[in-house]
Known about the structure:
23% of the residues lie in helices and 29% in strands. It is of the alpha/beta class. It has a seven-stranded mixed beta sheet with strand order 3-4-5-2-1-6-7.
Amino acid sequence: MRILMVASEAAPFAKTGGLADVVAALPRALVGLGHSVDVVIPRYRGITVGEPIGRVSVPLGRQLTDAAVYAVIEAGVRTVFVDHPGYFDRDHLYGAVGHDYPDNPERFAFLSRAALEWASSANEPYDAVHAHDWQAGLVPVFLREYAHTPALRQASTMFTIHNLAYQGIFDASWLP
């Protein structure tokens, strides 16, 4: 199978807890079983690995924003980094201790959409799309808009909640 994973963190590139460990270990285990796995995460401040592989134009509400895309292959897993400094070049991944960044819903909606924009241009189709935690929670919703693309047409989806304590609950007023 060819699998696309979208997450907000993956060790060793970005880590605040167990999510990063799972998003590092699971793809490697799947590659060991003969599957092909791409993992998409933000290119946070401090991530310097990866070669530029292109750009994506990301529609989000009424705006269209470009982002650079970088990638690195380690242990057979391709990790793809979405580089948008306005969203991801910050002191912390999610906010200062005890306080989320107020634009977190938009930041991670952008990540979800950017991952699918990038994946939709792939030459080989994906069989499954696996979204991890609330930060990638819009991936299955946005995926409907990519059902016409050969790369994502046949993809099944899976959504995994790693820590129920962090639910990504925000006021609906941020929605376009």
